[in-house]
Amino acid sequence: MAKKLKKIERPDIDTYFLKIAKLVSQRATCRRHNVGAVLVRDKQILTTGYNGAAAGVKDCLELGCLRDELKIPSGSHHEICRAIHAEQNAIIQAAKHGVNTEGATMYVTHSPCIICAKMIVNAGVKRVVCITKYPDETSDKLFKEANVSLEVHADVDFSYKDHRP
Predict the structure, then answer these.
(1) What is the pLDDT of residues 67-122, one digit of tens each?
(2) Orientation of helix 114-122 relative to helix 137-145, angle to 10°
(3) Number of C-beta neighbours around residue 103 at 10 A
(4) Rounded Cα gap, residues 72 and 68, in angstroms
(5) What percent of the chain is helix, strand and coil (3-state, nearest 5)?
(6) Most buried residue among 12, 99, 125, 143 by CB atoms closer than 10 A?
(7) What count of other Cβ atoms lies within 10 Å of the Cβ of residue 134?
(8) For position 137, what pLDDT does the model report?
(9) pTM of the model
(10) Among the options 87, 102, 145, 151, which is catalytic?
(11) Among residues 153, 25, 134, 41, which one has the least CA distance to residue 85?
């Protein structure tokens, strides 16, 4: 008599990569938001990125948040910040290592700002999947015009399930 195997529930592919983006976000050096991004094509990770200061320079964990000091509201004046956004870092890593991003999907913990949205479009990314949506209509409009799909998966379960018997 064959032993009945316990059904194992695996996360779907979008949940899998969003969980990786969430893990990547833990490396962020921003005091306001921990954001992680994962560039994927054909179910393979191309690059990852998190928000933080440029390589080799002091970050907000060390120096404090310039935006907080100047009382700059979230979502405005992105240029007044020490951090490079997670999406930008993922695209920069692809360029640095000669990785083609055409047709890729970007998984990101937060929906992209308009600056990152422009870079995503020019990098040839065709799909963006995020957990949290910023109320930024300009990014939405750009993605729509450029035929980049934007999906929000706010219901992702980040608990760990061990499937061993």
Answers:
(1) 777 787 777 777 777 789 999 999 999 999 999 999 999 999 999 999 999 999 99
(2) 20
(3) 11
(4) 6
(5) 30, 20, 50
(6) 125
(7) 16
(8) 87
(9) 0.89
(10) 87
(11) 25
For 135, which DSSP code?
Answer: S
Nearest to 116 by CA among 61, 79, 153: 79
Residue 10: band (very low, low, confident or very high) from pLDDT cuts 50, 70, 90 = confident
Q: Which amino acid is at 54?
A: A
Given CA atoms 147, 148, 154, 156 in this order, what sign does their dihedral have? positive
- The single-letter code of the amino acid at 40 is V
CA triple 115-25-150, angle to 5 deg: 45
* Among 107, 104, 116, CA closest to 78: 116
Classify residue 67 by burial, with Cβ atoms within 10 Å: 0-12, 13-18, 19+: buried
Catalytic-residue membership of 87 = yes
